[in-house]
Structures are given as structure tokens and as C-alpha cells.
Design a protein that fits this description.
alpha/beta, binds adenosine-5'-diphosphate, binds magnesium ion, OB fold (Dihydrolipoamide Acetyltransferase, E2P), 7-stranded parallel beta sheet, Rossmann fold, 6-stranded parallel beta sheet, 40% helix
Length: 704
């Protein structure tokens, strides 16, 4: 039993480490104890079973492993240019090895005439193939029978290397730690049944094989096993949390589908709902009558028709005698929701009001009174709805639009508004999150998806244009305006280069004004540095069709709806992230007309920038774009996932392990269905592991 504590031993006590290196490991790699050291897995391996032929090497060969003879060694150059060059030859040809530091030591240890195994990255120097600072090992010592043929390589830093914790040393230390690992120090944490059913490698063996695989097959098996357990325990915890929440948090029961809903559905609904919309409404309906508080995330691409789902959900609340509120992250968007919802619901005799920070004085006082007295059915607004000491008569449902700008704190405040139960919560977002991320990030939420657009939409045509197409683009804008359409021109604005960005926008505005002069043409300008009142005024002019062109920064990104706008020009498109580009594009294509998105960029694009533009041109599907974003930027950097410690894995990787995650989640669910509290004998390893590893887990606050 004591042995389970073995891995908690501070790292400086590992033989060969000591206080100085120990301190460095903590600082540089966050390795504090034996466990951290052991579970810091190699990120690649040197395959000592296969060697490259020198004659096959070229500039793009990357990391290669060579076997040959060191023929010559000479020191050339002076001062900073001083370097040592070794001539290395195999049966097929020769290559130069170069060192710029540690020359004296190298001179001592390298043996001219001996056979070496060399590992390093090939590059071209003065047309000669070269490897600088290769790893060198005498062939007699490398890859022999008693040593494995894969050498692990660990993430490291310059400082660690300089302090003698280079890769070779690291291997030695890991090996001796593994060899000295007492029985029971790294106990099996999966049940025999799971191991058996899934044919997984036992934990201890996986630990050994991940560091020193005996062959490719063993390496794969070890990887799979460790990925599995990493994903499995997280999902197990998330699912437990979800069940736990559902038991604890009772919610209002919306027993009936009542008059308002029926009347609206039968007499006022301006179109037929899509299948996807109907399904989501069914899911919501099930939640609302279950007696458990709803916590549902509704994902749907821009234009997929989330608003009407929100409206009909609010009717379910009102039919049962409750009030509903709806919040949006910006004043403009909240206003739009307000006027939209009012148009839908006032004909039914419902009282819909607007509240934001800008509503003050007597107006505000009346709203608050009416709200408290239950005269208002629906309150729509900004965060002010919950920041304020706003008191509802009986708040049964809260809807937030564009969730990724809605923090955890705000959700908590919302909860406090309900009595005796917290209101049901529907969170809507048009930033689709790939399933794998949603499962982890929102593991405690139920997720609904609207995955089809309403019928009759023409897909937006997206084109990539460079500076030399500028006149052509102007011509196109003119043509569309003549057809009675409106045009957005969007500029990037980021904090780091704010001044320059604003200048850019201004220059763009002037160029457009010259090209499209008044009185024939009118142009609105909106950017984040303007006073809210001015912004709203300009915005309003565009919404009402008084201006044909809207020059703006990304303030228009979220939710704004001008169906008559058919062209979205995005300047410096390479500077936007994928999800942002997609959001912006979603501002057009809302009416029946063919719409266009023009991505303007310079000629020079980074590889990633080019890939983003290519993705945008190729697809209109938000989920596909989210997947691409995930691939390009990694899970931690996507919109809505930033700073989520929960997405940091040791070995699993949400980009590539989506399928595995799906499978793991199902298995975790099955285990919990059979044994919710993990009380069965066979599940004791699971319980022990969860209890010891997730006790003080900080992930909770981030996801609930
Ligand atoms: P989003 O999901 O981006 O919030 P909206 O709710 O604003 O999308 O809907 C976009 C447009 O599609 C609106 O003009 C809306 O009236 C229309 N719409 C929504 N559902 C349907 C439907 N089932 N059939 C036809 N049009 C629809
Ligand atoms: Mg919307």
C-alpha cells in the first residue's frame, strides 16, 4: 500500500538529479516528483532499426539516422565563426557534421575512424548537405541486442541540456527509475474486465513500453493504452459530474404545451420549421418537463435559425406561468433580438421589453417595477440583465446568445435569479465546436445541434482576391449596389496594432468614399473606438438601407442581421482566425439573393494563412471549418476554448483521437450506467484512481 506513495517522492531525490537539477526540472518542465518524471512521455523516438543512405538525403529529409564512419575531424574559422567539421561517410556517400560549441570536449571523445550512429536534421550549407550538432553514438553501443532499437526523445530545453540533463542522461534516469519501481507503485487502474474486453496493455507494461518500446507494435499498444486511460478517466469524471448535477439540481416542471405556443405555431410562424429545428425543440421540451434544471448548449451555424427555437422555447415557459429572459453580448445584437422577438410575439399580446445599461431613469424604473410585478413576459437585453439588481417575478428560463462571450460568472449570477429553483438555461452559439472538444469542454452540458440551413438558401460564394484585383472588386461592389444590395467591408482591429489598424480602416474608408461619392452613395463607419451612440446611429442607417456600404471592424461579427446585404469584403483576411472569418461571412447570405464573400490578402501568405483562406473558399460548413481550425491551431487556441486547462493532455490529442474519444466516452457511460458510484469489486481500481487523481481537480470551475 505504501508503495503507491513512491511516485510522490520529490524529484531531487532521484539518484543523479539532486537539488540543482531538481530545481531546473521544476522550473523548465514542471516536473516535481517521480510521477511527473515518469509520465512525461517521449514525443518521438529514434528508430535504430532503419538507417538512411547518405546519397538519398536532400534538403527536406528532416531528421535522419545514419550509420557510417567518421573520416576526418577539423577545426576551422576564428572567433565566433570557429567550428568543427567532421566528414562522415557510409557506403553511398558523405556528409558534413558541424559543431559550433563544446569543441574541446568533442575533440576528446570523438574517434576518427570509428563507426557511428548519427542522428540529426539535414540542411544545405553552401550547396553541401550538412547536419549540425548531431547526436552521436558509437555503433558498437547503439541498437545492440540487449538495448532496444527505439530510443526515446523527450521535450527538453537549452538550460536542461547544459546542466547535463541531455537526452542520453534523461534516458538513463528514466530507465533506472523504471527498473527500481516497487511493486504496486504504478498499480493497474482499469478493471480486469475492461482490460480483457478491449485488449489493452496493462498499465505497468505500457509505462515501460512507452519509454523503451521493444518494437513498433509494442509502442502502438502502449500509446493506445495510455491514451485510453487518460481520456477515460476524464470522461468518467465528467459524466459523474453531470449525473450528480442532475440529481442535485431540481428544476421547474413545464408541464404543458399551452395556448401561446399553439397559437404561435399554427397562426404566426412565418415558415415551416426545418427537421433539425423540430428535433432540437423536442429535446428542449423533454428537458423542460423532466423536473431537472436544463443546461443545454445549442450549436448552430450562422443563419441556421436558432432565434426561432429561442422564441418557441420562451413560449413554453410563458405558457407555464413563468417569465423568460434573453441576453446577448452586445447592445446592437440585443436590440436586434428585441425587435425581432417583439415582432413575433406582440401580436400574441405578450409583453416584451428591453433593458441594457443605456436604459435609465424613469424608463428603467418602470421596467423594473413591471418585471417584479410579473407584467413583463420577456425581458431582452445585455449583460445588464444580470449585473443589475434586477428582480424577476418568476424567472423560469434564461437564454444567452453567443455563449463563448458569456463567462462562467454570468451563468452563476443567472442561477441566483431563480427561486426556488434556478431557471432553465439555454446557451446558443454560432461558433461550432468540434464534437471532440464539446464532449470535453462541455462534458457537463447537453448539446443540441442544428446541422442544416433553412431551405432555399443559396450557398455563399467565397473568393480569394489580392491587391491587384482591387479595381475589379470595386466594380463588383458597384454592380451589386446598382442591384439594390448592400456591402460590408471589414478591417481587422487588434489591440497590439490598434493605431495602425485604425489608420488602415480610415484609409480604406477614404478610398471607398472617392470611389463611391455622395450623394449617390452613402457609407457607414463603425468601429470599437466610437461612442456607443454614434456606433448605433451608423449601424442603424445601414440596417434601414440609408447607406449602401458599411465599413467596420469586427464589431459587426456577432449576430447582426441585414438580409439585404449580399457582399462581405474582408480586408487583410489572412489576419483573421478561421472561426472569425466564418462568423463574418455569415453576415451575408441571409436573404434570398446570391451572396459573396471576398477575402482580400497580400501576395505573401504564411502556410497556415494560405490554408485558412483555402478552407474558407472550399466550404461553407461551420463544423468543417471548426475541425480545420482545430487542426491548424490546436485545441487550446480556438475561439471559446482558450485557457481551458482541461484540454491539456499528456498523450491524448483531441485533433487525432476523436474516434477514440467517442469510443471511450461510450465505454465510460456504460460503466457508470451499470455502477454509478463505482461500488462493484471489479471497479475498485477505477474508483481508487479517480479518488486519488481527481480529488482536488481544478477543472470543475472551468466547465460548469
Ligand atoms: P442564427 O442561427 O444565425 O441566429 P437566425 O435565427 O437569425 O439564425 O435565422 C436566420 C434567418 O433564417 C432568419 O431570417 C430567419 O427568419 C430564417 N429562418 C429561420 N428558420 C427558418 C426556416 N425553418 N425556414 C425558413 N427560414 C428560416
Ligand atoms: Mg443569431
Amino acid at each position: 500500500m505504501q508503495n503507491t506513495k513512491f511516485l510522490d517522492t520529490p524529484i531531487e531525490y532521484l539518484k543523479g538529479i539532486g537539488p540543482v537539477k531538481g530545481e531546473l526540472l521544476k522550473k523548465e518542465l514542471g516536473i516535481f516528483n517521480f510521477r511527473d518524471f515518469l509520465y512525461h512521455f517521449p514525443y518521438r523516438y529514434i528508430d535504430k532499426t532503419r538507417f538512411h543512405a547518405i546519397s538519398d538525403l536532400h534538403e527536406n529529409s528532416g531528421q535522419v539516422l545514419l550509420k557510417g564512419t567518421l573520416r576526418r575531424l577539423e577545426t576551422i574559422g576564428e572567433g565566433r565563426k570557429k567550428r568543427m567539421v567532421g566528414r562522415f561517410r557510409d557506403d553511398s556517400g558523405a556528409i558534413d557534421l558541424v559543431w559550433f560549441s563544446g569543441l574541446r570536449w568533442l575533440e576528446k571523445v570523438l574517434q576518427v575512424g570509428s563507426e557511428y550512429v548519427v542522428y540529426g536534421k539535414v540542411y544545405s550549407f553552401q550547396e553541401k548537405k550538412t547536419i549540425s550538432h548531431p547526436e552521436m553514438e558509437l555503433a558498437t553501443q547503439a541498437g545492440t541486442a540487449e538495448r532496444p532499437s527505439f530510443d526515446p526523445v523527450y521535450p527538453s530545453t537549452e538550460k536542461l541540456n547544459n546542466k547535463g540533463l541531455d537526452v542520453k542522461n534523461r534516458r538513463k534516469l528514466v530507465r533506472s527509475l523504471l527498473e527500481g519501481l516497487p511493486e504496486g507503485a504504478a498499480p493497474e487502474n482499469l478493471s480486469p474486465r475492461l482490460l480483457q474486453a478491449l485488449q489493452l496493455m496493462p498499465h505497468r507494461e505500457a509505462l515501460e513500453q512507452i519509454h523503451f518500446p521493444k518494437d513498433q507494435e509494442a509502442l502502438e499498444a502502449a500509446r493506445l493504452r495510455l491514451k485510453f486511460e487518460e481520456l477515460f478517466f476524464l470522461q468518467l469524471r465528467l459524466l459523474q459530474l453531470k449525473t450528480h448535477n442532475q440529481e442535485r439540481i431540481k428544476g421547474y416542471v413545464f408541464e404543458q404545451i399551452g395556448n401561446f405556443f399553439h397559437t404561435f405555431f399554427e397562426e404566426h410562424l412565418p415558415f415551416e420549421l426545418t427537421e433539425a429545428q423540430k428535433n432540437v425543440l423536442k429535446e428542449i421540451r423533454r428537458d423542460l418537463k423532466s423536473g431537472i434544471q436544463m443546461n443545454r448548449l445549442l450549436q448552430g451555424d450562422v443563419g441556421s435559425g436558432k432565434t426561432i427555437v429561442a422564441v418557441m422555447t420562451m413560449l413554453m415557459a410563458i405558457d407555464n406561468g413563468y417569465q423568460a429572459c434573453m441576453m446577448a453580448p452586445t447592445e446592437i445584437l440585443a436590440q436586434q433580438h428585441y425587435s425581432g422577438v417583439k415582432d413575433y410575439l406582440e401580436p400574441l399580446g405578450l409583453e416584451v421589453r428591453f433593458l441594457s445599461g443605456s436604459v435609465s431613469g424613469k424608463k428603467r424604473k418602470t421596467i423594473l417595477e413591471d418585471l417584479g410585478a410579473g407584467k413583463i413576459h420577456i425581458l431582452i437585453g445585455t449583460h445588464a440583465l444580470i449585473e443589475e439588481p434586477v428582480k424577476f417575478h418568476q424567472l423560469g428560463l434564461a437564454i444567452t446568445d453567443e455563449q463563448h462571450r458569456f463567462g462562467v460568472e454570468q451563468r452563476a449570477k443567472l442561477w441566483a435569479k431563480g427561486k426556488p429553483f434556478p431557471p432553465h438555461i439555454l446557451v446558443m452559439t454560432a461558433t461550432p465546436i468540434p464534437r471532440t472538444l464539446a464532449m470535453t469542454l462541455y462534458g457537463d452540458l447537453d448539446v443540441s445541434v442544428i446541422n442544416t440551413l433553412p431551405p432555399g438558401r443559396k450557398p455563399i460564394q467565397t473568393l480569394h482576391k489580392t491587391e491587384n484585383h482591387r479595381l475589379q472588386v470595386f466594380g463588383f461592389i458597384r454592380q451589386e449596389i446598382q442591384l439594390g444590395r448592400q456591402v460590408y467591408v471589414v478591417y481587422p482591429l487588434i489591440e497590439e496594432s490598434e493605431k495602425l489598424d485604425l489608420l488602415n480602416l480610415e484609409a480604406g474608408y477614404h478610398a471607398l468614399s472617392r470611389e463611391f461619392p455622395p450623394p449617390q452613395y452613402q457609407i457607414s463607419v463603425v468601429h470599437g473606438k466610437m461612442k456607443p451612440a454614434d456606433k448605433d446611429y451608423e449601424m442603424q442607417r445601414f440596417v434601414e438601407g440609408k447607406t449602401q456600404i458599411m465599413v467596420a471592424t469586427t464589431v459587426i461579427e456577432v449576430g447582426v442581421n441585414v438580409p439585404n446585404a449580399s457582399v462581405m469584403v474582408i480586408e487583410n483576411a489572412e489576419r483573421f482566425g478561421l472561426s472569425q472569418l466564418h462568423q463574418l461571412r455569415g453576415r451575408v447570405g441571409r436573404g434570398a439573393e446570391q451572396s459573396y464573400c471576398l477575402l482580400m490578402t497580400g501576395f505573401k501568405l504564411s502556410e497556415e494563412g494560405r490554408e485558412r483562406i483555402r478552407t474558407m473558399v472550399q466550404t461553407n460548413d461551420g463544423f468543417e471549418i471548426a475541425e480545420a481550425d482545430l487542426r491548424l491551431r490546436g485545441p487550446g487556441n480556438m475561439e471559446g476554448t482558450q485557457q481551458s486547462g482541461i484540454l491539456q493532455f499528456r498523450i491524448a490529442d483531441l485533433v487525432h483521437d476523436g474516434k477514440l474519444l467517442e469510443k471511450v466516452r461510450n465505454i465510460a457511460r456504460k460503466v457508470l450506467d451499470e455502477d454509478p458510484l463505482l461500488e462493484k469489486d471489479e471497479n475498485q481500481p477505477l474508483k481508487t484512481y479517480l479518488d486519488s487523481h481527481f480529488k482536488s481537480w481544478k477543472g470543475w470551475s472551468k466547465i460548469s
